[in-house]
Each structure stands twice: as structure tokens, then as C-alpha cells.
Task: inverse folding
């Protein structure tokens, strides 16, 4: 009887251990893993590789307990940068960050993020875009992929080759290189003459005087080696950001993830959209020291002159609204929602809700 009882207890113990151990093994060793491919035009030596892209991959793996891994394909290894929206849409890549300006005419409504003088803090542009996107305004133009977060540059400033204008009038006639779109139209409204120069030709254009002004975040001075050439001053102006960019993911790939991993991926990619901007701000701060060391003067305009420039931004906002409404798009609604969101975040854009 004693042996029988011991056998029963032994079997019971084995069953109990099995009930405890097997689910644990199923949730760890035998859990399905998912690999996400990230396509980027950036090389592994890019300034954003170490502080942004590589940590994002590590964070995905960490928060998913190793169930999500992200492989980064550097330097257009999967395809050209300008093709990466289509690559994600078609499943050639799973994730990328894509500047909307690379497909002119497709992502027109979200150009609201690049309107002049929208915010002092570029992070607020990203956050305001997320608030507007939640209401579905960008779904039609971006709907072939899943938008995971919005991305923006830091604020654009004016770098002067030989001049140091203290008034709006003193900027008139200067040849300025800007990125195009509404920012270039704003530069023209300020009386400067937009000039097209490709990034690889930046050094030569600055050296030879093809342009007098470069419109770019402060990193341009270091990126294009303008510290090696005569450069007079940097006007810290917060002209606006290039913000019509999004972190995007293939819809089928996202849908294939279990709900808990969808949550992890959504949270990490949204957070790292902001990390991109934070790292860019750190880079700008570091480059201020480089600019000062090179003897380039960093200055601001008076409040009166700044107000004049901000007033010139308003017609560009109205032009955006008119351009969108000609296309049958809700330009004024989007501008109103964007401004509402910016004001909630403490910003004072030039446009008032109508």
C-alpha cells in the first residue's frame, strides 16, 4: 500500500512539474521570433547610426524578450533611398524612415509639418503631427503603409557667407540655397533669391560664391565643411523644420505579429521617431562649439525684425491651404488641427485658426 501511495505521489509530482515547466518553455525557448528588415540610405558610419538606429534595434529585442529582432540594411543595400516607400509597401523591406519630399506630389497634405516658423521646439512638430494623424487626415496619402511615427529635422537657420544682415531689408537679393517646397517659397518671400544646389556640390558652391546663404540646421556647417571656407555668421532664426517624414512599416508584416508584439513595435518605433529629433538637437548643440571655434558669429535679430519675418510666414500658410483645397484636400482643417495641437504644446505659430 505504501509503495502504491508513493507511486501516486510521484506521478502527481511529475504532472505538477510538467504543468509548471512546459508553459514556461513554450513562452521562452519555443516562442516564435520575428525578424524585421530596416532599409536605410545611411551608411553604418552615419551620425545617427550609433545613437539612434542601432539602439532602436536593441530596444525592440529587449522589450520583446528576444522575440523581435531588427536587421539594418545600410547604405541602400536593399534599394535606393527614394524607392524605400515602395519597398516597404511591397514587402521588400519591413521598416524605414521616409522623407515625403522624395516622392513629390504624393504626400502633399502632411507638408503642413514643413510650414515656416511653426514651432520653437522641433519635437513639438513631431508630437503635433501625431495628434493630427490620429484623426485620420493623412490616412489616404500614407495608407499604403503603416505610419509608426513622424520624424523631423531640427530648426532651419540662415548661414551667411560674407554678410551679417541685421534687418529683413538687408537680406534682399541674397542668393539662398534651401531644400525646396514651402521653405524655399518662404525664403523668396523674405526677399532672397532661391538657388538650387545639390548636397554634393555644397562645398564648391560656398567656395565660389554661387550662393550667399545656406538654409539648413546648424549641422550643415560641419557636414559640408564650411568651417574650412570663409563664413561670416549664423542667424539663429528657427525658420521651420523639414517635417514631412515618417517611420513606416509594411502593413502585412505588422498584422502578422501577435498583439503583444504589435504593442511593443508600435511603442518603440514611435519613441525612436522622437529619439531621432533629440539626437539631432544634441548634435546641433555640439556643433555650436565647432562654429564658435571657427570664428563664425552666431546671432539673433531684434524682436521687431523677428516679428517682420514671422509676418512673412503667414501668406505661406495660406498658400498651403489654397494648394491643398485646389486638390480637393482639407487644407484649412489640417492647418487648424495642426495649430490647435501646437498651441496645446505651448507653441505660437504664425497662423490663427479660422
Result:
Amino acid at each position: 500500500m505504501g509503495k502504491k501511495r508513493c507511486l501516486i505521489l510521484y506521478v502527481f509530482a511529475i504532472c505538477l512539474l510538467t504543468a509548471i515547466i512546459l508553459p514556461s518553455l513554450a513562452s521562452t525557448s519555443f516562442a516564435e521570433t520575428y525578424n524585421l528588415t530596416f532599409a536605410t540610405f545611411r551608411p553604418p558610419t552615419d551620425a545617427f547610426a550609433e545613437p539612434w538606429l542601432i539602439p532602436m534595434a536593441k530596444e525592440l529585442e529587449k522589450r520583446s524578450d528576444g522575440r523581435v529582432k531588427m536587421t539594418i540594411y545600410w547604405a541602400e543595400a536593399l534599394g535606393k533611398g527614394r524607392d524605400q516607400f515602395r519597398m516597404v509597401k511591397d514587402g521588400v523591406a519591413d521598416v524605414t524612415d521616409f522623407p515625403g519630399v522624395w516622392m513629390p506630389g504624393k504626400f502633399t497634405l502632411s507638408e503642413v509639418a514643413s510650414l515656416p516658423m511653426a514651432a520653437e521646439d522641433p519635437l513639438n512638430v513631431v508630437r503635433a503631427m501625431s495628434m493630427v494623424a490620429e484623426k485620420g487626415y493623412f490616412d489616404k496619402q500614407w495608407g499604403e503603409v503603416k505610419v509608426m511615427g513622424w520624424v523631423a529635422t531640427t530648426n532651419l537657420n540662415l548661414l551667411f557667407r560674407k554678410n551679417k544682415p541685421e534687418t529683413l531689408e538687408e537680406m534682399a537679393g541674397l542668393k539662398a540655397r534651401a531644400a525646396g517646397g514651402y521653405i524655399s517659397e518662404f525664403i523668396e518671400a523674405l526677399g532672397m533669391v532661391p538657388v538650387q544646389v545639390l548636397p554634393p556640390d555644397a562645398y564648391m558652391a560656398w567656395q565660389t560664391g554661387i550662393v550667399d546663404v545656406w538654409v539648413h540646421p546648424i549641422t550643415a556647417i560641419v557636414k559640408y565643411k564650411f568651417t574650412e571656407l570663409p563664413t561670416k555668421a549664423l542667424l539663429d532664426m528657427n525658420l521651420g523644420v523639414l517635417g514631412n517624414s515618417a517611420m513606416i512599416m509594411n502593413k502585412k508584416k505588422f498584422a502578422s505579429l501577435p498583439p503583444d508584439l504589435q504593442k511593443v513595435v508600435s511603442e518603440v518605433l514611435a519613441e525612436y521617431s522622437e529619439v531621432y529629433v533629440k539626437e539631432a538637437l544634441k548634435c546641433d548643440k555640439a556643433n555650436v562649439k565647432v562654429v564658435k571655434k571657427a570664428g563664425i558669429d552666431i546671432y539673433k535679430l531684434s524682436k521687431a525684425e523677428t516679428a517682420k519675418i514671422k509676418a512673412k510666414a503667414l501668406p505661406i500658410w495660406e498658400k498651403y491651404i489654397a494648394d491643398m483645397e485646389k486638390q480637393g484636400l482639407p487644407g484649412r482643417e489640417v492647418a487648424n488641427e495642426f495649430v490647435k495641437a501646437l498651441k496645446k504644446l505651448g507653441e505660437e505659430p504664425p497662423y490663427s485658426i479660422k
Notes: The longest strand covers residues 34-39. The chain has twelve helices and eleven strands. The mean pLDDT is 92.
